[in-house]
Amino acid sequence: MSLHDEGHTIAGWTGFCIGAAGSGLAGAGVCVASLPAVGAGLVIAGAGVLVTWALHLAGWGKPPGVRPRGQWGMRVRDSQARAGHAGCVACRLAGRGRDSRSVEVAGAAVPGEAG
Known about the structure:
By secondary structure, this protein is mostly helical. About 45% of the residues lie in helices and about 0% in strands. Residues about 100-110 have low confidence and may be disordered.
């Protein structure tokens, strides 16, 4: 088993199930030429993305990378979710976890200005 333990989270599996149901409905809609079914399937798949994002921010999704074996279980919430994960797009979209590449400009010295 990998030390990274990717994707074994409540957020990941819930999002997958909702997305698969939406994709299946959209695919069935294409097969029977039903535009409402295709639209409903796409809406459900989009809802899966939002549900996954909300569960990740609530601590049911975990960041990538090596974690201690005690945090591998699906029922273990992520204690770092409130502060955000460095380099995590979902956390950055929510305004959390600014990574080290972010530059703070407030109070920065301007060249040529006497201070």
